[in-house]
């Protein structure tokens, strides 16, 4: 043992992890047919531990047997524990073999539990001046946490310290023993005091200080059943304290010197991994083995869209999908919750009577605790009304109504939330969702506590494969599990025959809903390990997942709209459209339905004989915006008028009219829904209403923004990143003149014009600056000479000369563009400065137009995606910053590079300064980030 550095001893709770891995992973078999799912989980954990969390010393601690000194003290201790499952028994020895293969000491001692040995080693190392990390999530070990001793959850790779202990037990680690003595432990048959649970126990500790103080004070307490039990079961409580107290004086079978971390024997380890068939680990660790491997390891290469995975990630075919259980009694529900706690991880899914989580009612819940092990809890199913014979009522009799067929027993939602609430809030149990934001909004609105900690399979996939394929559960299941789940249409019908989910037969609902939870859990087992392989773990854990509750709060808050102003706007738009229609009819030479593409095509191409028309498969002329824009660019007036009419019609229907119906009649606020996994660049999108498409620089767009207003006594505060994509371009392409201009705070467009056209900034013609601005922003989106010429009103040849001059002055930008095209072709994706992979479908398409579009995407995605990463970083940090500053400002909207807040008018200045500081420090680039803020009574004035 070296005296030069303090000891950092890592102790792995081997016995505890075996059970957790067994329940978390699906069945797997070695080439000889031996079950190995727990061994596989343990081996992966140990390999990751050696790579990422290496201390100076390491050991794995095991239980030597079921009988210990505690059985001598209390013969009923763990007496009711069932025998291990048949499939788990052969894996105990294999886990010990795995430990030996890695060259890690495996320690056990007859008559003592692994927890006691861990306590003894932790004491020994801290007394020697070192520190100890216990790799386990076992609540019994939390009593050991203190300065120098901490824990780490091996599944979630999260530290467990005093804060997590207090969240679980309601007390600091030094009081955990007293809490456990009061509540007992039904799993280990520790008696405790009847009727006292964790909340009561922690409240008693807070009031009286310790178990002894509580028992001494019991006779003087107010008469109650709790007081009587404390008196009657005082000796049981003291016995329980003895049973749950870990013995720091237990023997340490191996001296600390022998626990020094050593590199494993690669030949021995590779041989063992190969024999077990763990070829993914062989590949990941760069080892060789002579035995044939089996296909049980996670796939490291995602399938192409529409294709099956190369290797079945977790052998889904070995675990049937169902049958699933329907939970209709409190006892059954409590058993499922207990199983979820033992597993330490579960998948949760909600079934509702609508798609809007802020208004939908909870119809049922599903829970999965292992592959193929899932249930459904019906809450509000109802029968289809049955029509009664039309009989006239007798005098004085009530009018007969439809009678409902019984649907069978269901649990009261209050009871279900009371039982499941502690599980949802338990920091020691990971809750997995597919599209967690929806379920969190539904659950909290129904009265459940905020679920935490969580994982989201949709976001886990999105962090790795944005743009490569969709992130819906059914698509992910087909791609990564080789399984097609029951569809919603199959259980509810389609079209006019669709029935609400509440009317679906409970048996059929169980098959559908429980399968969703089962699939979600299997997707987590398959996709979660790939995050580290694809270098997306930090992106997911630091950006995407923490953003879920932030966006949920934004959706709950909503934003107020001025309904009267919207109605006036709608009427004004209608009058303007009528006038435009009259002008259009005059140009066409007759009246027609301006909103009809078919009639418009006949006017343009059949009657007016304009060139360039193309018929679609239906036989009608194509009249989309690209066709009309092309005709307008060629000097034809009517197509341009149609485009203007369509733009106004869209604004009227999408905003002026729709927002009135979307506003909550009680609060006058609209609640947009933020979509987290749609775009290929990481950008958020929104719908109902879509706030991303409000024109920024038009009069109509400004008027629509004026209809979004602050609550009385409040103002809206807009915070907008200035030219963030250009700043990212200067950073990633390393363009010295642009970096200098941003560093000096110069007008970037004037500086570009000066650099490209060789004229001084002072006294620059505004038209010259406008041309440089068009090039600056156009380059980001791969603009062509034709497109730039159309935008500036010049010939394509002149526009080409501008672009050539631009690249001649900034050759690094062309190099960047060439590099992004090459990366996209070689990898299928490009990467943002913060590590997000943006997949680029069509980069090798034979169709030149589609390929050119993909190349433009490849150029822009790192910039647009980088901007999305930066604003998400800020959004994740802002809630805590506001809370620390004591400001009650609310984040309401995110639109592209802008955040919109609502704050009391007196706090606007303080909030503006804080938001600016947080947003500008969200990332460190070679150019400064600049945020412009403004306030006003409405969005337009604040923007």
UniProtKB/TrEMBL annotation:
<feature type="domain" description="3'-5' exonuclease">
    <location>
        <begin position="324"/>
        <end position="532"/>
    </location>
</feature>
<keyword id="KW-0238">DNA-binding</keyword>
<keyword id="KW-0227">DNA damage</keyword>
<dbReference type="InterPro" id="IPR020045">
    <property type="entry name" value="DNA_polI_H3TH"/>
</dbReference>
<protein>
    <recommendedName>
        <fullName>DNA polymerase I</fullName>
        <ecNumber>2.7.7.7</ecNumber>
    </recommendedName>
</protein>
<feature type="domain" description="5'-3' exonuclease">
    <location>
        <begin position="7"/>
        <end position="262"/>
    </location>
</feature>
<keyword id="KW-0234">DNA repair</keyword>
<dbReference type="InterPro" id="IPR002298">
    <property type="entry name" value="DNA_polymerase_A"/>
</dbReference>
<keyword id="KW-0269">Exonuclease</keyword>
<dbReference type="Pfam" id="PF02739">
    <property type="entry name" value="5_3_exonuc_N"/>
</dbReference>
<dbReference type="InterPro" id="IPR029060">
    <property type="entry name" value="PIN-like_dom_sf"/>
</dbReference>
<dbReference type="InterPro" id="IPR002562">
    <property type="entry name" value="3'-5'_exonuclease_dom"/>
</dbReference>
<dbReference type="InterPro" id="IPR036279">
    <property type="entry name" value="5-3_exonuclease_C_sf"/>
</dbReference>
<keyword id="KW-0540">Nuclease</keyword>
<dbReference type="InterPro" id="IPR008918">
    <property type="entry name" value="HhH2"/>
</dbReference>
<dbReference type="GO" id="GO:0006261">
    <property type="term" value="P:DNA-templated DNA replication"/>
</dbReference>
<dbReference type="GO" id="GO:0008408">
    <property type="term" value="F:3'-5' exonuclease activity"/>
</dbReference>
<dbReference type="InterPro" id="IPR020046">
    <property type="entry name" value="5-3_exonucl_a-hlix_arch_N"/>
</dbReference>
<dbReference type="Pfam" id="PF00476">
    <property type="entry name" value="DNA_pol_A"/>
</dbReference>
<keyword id="KW-0548">Nucleotidyltransferase</keyword>
<dbReference type="InterPro" id="IPR002421">
    <property type="entry name" value="5-3_exonuclease"/>
</dbReference>
<dbReference type="InterPro" id="IPR019760">
    <property type="entry name" value="DNA-dir_DNA_pol_A_CS"/>
</dbReference>
<keyword id="KW-0235">DNA replication</keyword>
<dbReference type="InterPro" id="IPR001098">
    <property type="entry name" value="DNA-dir_DNA_pol_A_palm_dom"/>
</dbReference>
<dbReference type="InterPro" id="IPR012337">
    <property type="entry name" value="RNaseH-like_sf"/>
</dbReference>
<feature type="domain" description="DNA-directed DNA polymerase family A palm">
    <location>
        <begin position="701"/>
        <end position="907"/>
    </location>
</feature>
<dbReference type="InterPro" id="IPR018320">
    <property type="entry name" value="DNA_polymerase_1"/>
</dbReference>
<dbReference type="GO" id="GO:0008409">
    <property type="term" value="F:5'-3' exonuclease activity"/>
</dbReference>
<dbReference type="GO" id="GO:0003887">
    <property type="term" value="F:DNA-directed DNA polymerase activity"/>
</dbReference>
<dbReference type="InterPro" id="IPR036397">
    <property type="entry name" value="RNaseH_sf"/>
</dbReference>
<comment type="similarity">
    <text>Belongs to the DNA polymerase type-A family.</text>
</comment>
<dbReference type="InterPro" id="IPR043502">
    <property type="entry name" value="DNA/RNA_pol_sf"/>
</dbReference>
<dbReference type="Pfam" id="PF01367">
    <property type="entry name" value="5_3_exonuc"/>
</dbReference>
<dbReference type="GO" id="GO:0003677">
    <property type="term" value="F:DNA binding"/>
</dbReference>
<comment type="function">
    <text>In addition to polymerase activity, this DNA polymerase exhibits 3'-5' and 5'-3' exonuclease activity.</text>
</comment>
<keyword id="KW-0808">Transferase</keyword>
<keyword id="KW-0378">Hydrolase</keyword>
<keyword id="KW-0239">DNA-directed DNA polymerase</keyword>
<comment type="subunit">
    <text>Single-chain monomer with multiple functions.</text>
</comment>
<dbReference type="GO" id="GO:0006302">
    <property type="term" value="P:double-strand break repair"/>
</dbReference>
<dbReference type="Pfam" id="PF01612">
    <property type="entry name" value="DNA_pol_A_exo1"/>
</dbReference>
């Amino acid at each position: 043992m070296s005296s030069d550095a303090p000891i950092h001893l890592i102790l792995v709770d081997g016995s505890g992890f075996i059970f957790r891995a067994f329940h978390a992973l699906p069945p797997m078999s070695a080439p000889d047919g031996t079950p190995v799912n727990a061994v596989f989980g343990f081996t992966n954990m140990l390999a990751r531990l050696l790579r990422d969390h290496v201390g100076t010393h390491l050991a794995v601690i095991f239980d030597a047997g079921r009988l210990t000194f505690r059985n001598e003290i209390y013969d009923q201790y763990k007496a009711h524990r069932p025998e291990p499952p048949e499939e788990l028994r052969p894996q105990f020895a294999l886990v010990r073999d795995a430990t030996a293969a890695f060259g890690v000491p495996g320690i056990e001692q007859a008559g003592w539990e692994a927890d006691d040995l861990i306590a003894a080693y932790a004491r020994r190392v801290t007394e020697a001046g070192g520190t100890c990390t216990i790799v386990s999530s076992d609540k019994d070990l939390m009593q050991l946490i203190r300065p120098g001793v901490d824990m780490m959850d091996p599944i979630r790779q999260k530290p467990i310290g005093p804060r997590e202990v207090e969240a679980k037990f309601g007390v600091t680690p030094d009081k955990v023993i007293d809490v456990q003595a009061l509540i007992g432990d039904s799993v280990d048959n520790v008696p405790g005091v009847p009727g006292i649970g964790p909340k009561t126990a922690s409240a008693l500790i807070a009031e009286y200080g310790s178990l002894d103080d509580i028992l001494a004070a019991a006779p003087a307490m107010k008469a109650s059943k709790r007081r009587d039990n404390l008196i009657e079961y005082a000796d049981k409580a003291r016995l329980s304290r003895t049973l749950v107290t870990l013995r720091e004086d237990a023997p340490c079978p191996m001296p600390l010197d022998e626990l020094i971390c050593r590199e494993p024997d690669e030949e021995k380890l590779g041989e063992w991994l190969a024999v077990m068939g763990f070829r993914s680990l062989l590949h990941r660790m760069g080892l060789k083995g002579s035995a044939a491997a089996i296909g049980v390891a996670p796939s490291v290469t995602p399938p192409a869209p529409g294709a099956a995975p190369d290797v079945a990630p977790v052998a889904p075919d070995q675990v049937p999908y169902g049958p699933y259980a329907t939970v209709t009694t409190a006892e059954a529900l409590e058993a499922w919750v207990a199983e979820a706690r033992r597993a330490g991880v579960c998948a949760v899914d909600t079934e509702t009577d609508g798609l809007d989580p802020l208004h939908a009612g909870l119809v049922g819940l599903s829970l999965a605790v292992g592959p193929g092990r899932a249930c459904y809890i019906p809450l509000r199913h109802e029968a289809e009304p049955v029509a009664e014979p039309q009989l006239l009522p007798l005098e004085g009799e009530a009018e007969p109504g439809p009678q409902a067929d019984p649907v069978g027993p269901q649990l009261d939602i209050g009871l279900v939330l009371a039982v499941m609430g502690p599980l949802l809030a338990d920091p020691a149990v990971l809750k997995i969702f597919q599209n967690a934001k929806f379920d969190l909004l539904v659950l909290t609105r129904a009265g459940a506590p905020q679920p935490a900690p969580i994982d989201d399979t949709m976001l886990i996939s999105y962090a790795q494969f944005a743009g490569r394929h969709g992130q819906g559960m059914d698509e992910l299941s087909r791609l990564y599990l080789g399984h097609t789940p029951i569809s919603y249409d199959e259980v509810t019908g389609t079209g006019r025959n669709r029935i609400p989910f509440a009317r679906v037969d409970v048996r059929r609902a169980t098959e559908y809903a429980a399968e969703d939870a089962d699939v979600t859990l299997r997707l987590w087992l398959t996709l979660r390990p790939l995050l580290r392989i694809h270098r997306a773990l930090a992106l997911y854990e630091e950006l995407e997942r923490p953003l879920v509750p932030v966006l949920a709060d934004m959706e709950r808050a909503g934003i107020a709209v001025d309904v009267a102003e919207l109605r006036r706007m709608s009427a004004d738009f209608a009058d303007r459209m009528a006038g435009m229609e009259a002008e259009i009819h005059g140009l066409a030479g007759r009246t027609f339905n301006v909103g009809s593409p078919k009639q418009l095509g006949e006017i343009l191409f059949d009657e007016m004989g304009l060139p360039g028309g193309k018929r679609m498969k239906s036989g009608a002329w194509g009249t989309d915006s690209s066709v009309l824009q092309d005709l307008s660019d060629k000097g034809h007036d009517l197509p341009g008028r149609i485009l203007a009419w369509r733009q106004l019609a869209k604004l009227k229907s999408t905003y002026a009219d729709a927002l009135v119906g979307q506003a909550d009649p009680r609060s006058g606020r609209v609640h947009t829904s933020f979509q987290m996994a749609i775009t290929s660049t990481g950008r958020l999108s929104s719908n109902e209403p879509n706030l991303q498409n409000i024109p920024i620089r038009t009069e109509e767009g400004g008027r629509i923004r004026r209809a979004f207003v602050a609550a009385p006594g409040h103002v809206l505060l807009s915070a907008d990143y200035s030219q963030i994509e250009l700043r990212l371009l200067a950073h990633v392409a390393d363009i010295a003149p642009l970096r200098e201009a941003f560093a000096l705070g110069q007008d970037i467009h004037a500086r570009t014009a000066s650099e490209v056209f060789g004229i001084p900034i002072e006294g620059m013609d505004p038209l010259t600056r406008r041309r440089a601005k068009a090039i600056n922003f156009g380059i980001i989106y791969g603009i062509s000479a034709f497109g730039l010429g159309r935008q500036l009103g010049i010939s394509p040849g002149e526009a080409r000369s501008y672009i050539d001059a631009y690249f001649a002055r900034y050759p690094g930008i062309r190099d960047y563009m060439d590099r992004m095209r090459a990366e996209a072709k070689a990898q299928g994706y490009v990467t943002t400065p913060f590590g997000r992979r943006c997949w680029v479908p069509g980069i090798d398409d034979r169709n030149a137009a589609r390929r050119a579009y993909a190349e433009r995407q490849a150029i822009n995605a790192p910039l647009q995606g980088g901007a999305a990463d930066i604003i998400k970083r800020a959004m994740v940090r802002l809630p805590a910053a506001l809370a620390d500053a004591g400001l009650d400002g609310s984040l309401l909207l995110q639109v592209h590079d802008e955040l919109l807040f609502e704050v009391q008018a007196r706090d606007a200045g303080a909030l503006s300064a804080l938001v600016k500081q947080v947003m500008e420090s969200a990332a460190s680039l070679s150019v400064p980030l600049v945020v412009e803020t403004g306030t006003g009574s409405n969005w337009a004035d604040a923007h």
